[in-house]
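Review form for a predicted model. The reviewer records the input and the model, then writes brief findings.
Reviewer: anonymous (R2)
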Amino acid sequence: MNGYIQIDINGKKVGLKFNMYAGENLSSVKGNPTTSANIVRMVWAGILGNAFVKQIEPEVSFEDVVEWVDNLTLSGDKEGVLQKISDTFLNSQPMQKLLSKDEEKKS
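Model under review:
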């Protein structure tokens, strides 16, 4: 539930932290809301969240993330990396809080 996962992008170990800062940056990526764009948004937001909490520059560029997601998607993601990222995102405390607020609104 801590919203952290470490992945490998082009040989670099990259941390993704799904905190409030990451949540605020989810919509910063421009473009149509396609599945691949949403995956890129999620990964980039996690990278920004991790960089923010550690007060460092992101380990990779946005371009690296787009290319990595494209390559992983086209190759079939046999190790399920994108699913692991998605699960970490959905189970993070900020996301759980947002989901519970949505449920309260529906009630």
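Findings: Residues 4-106 form one domain.
Further findings: The helical segments are 20-25, 35-54, 62-75, 81-90, 93-106.
Recommendation: see findings above.
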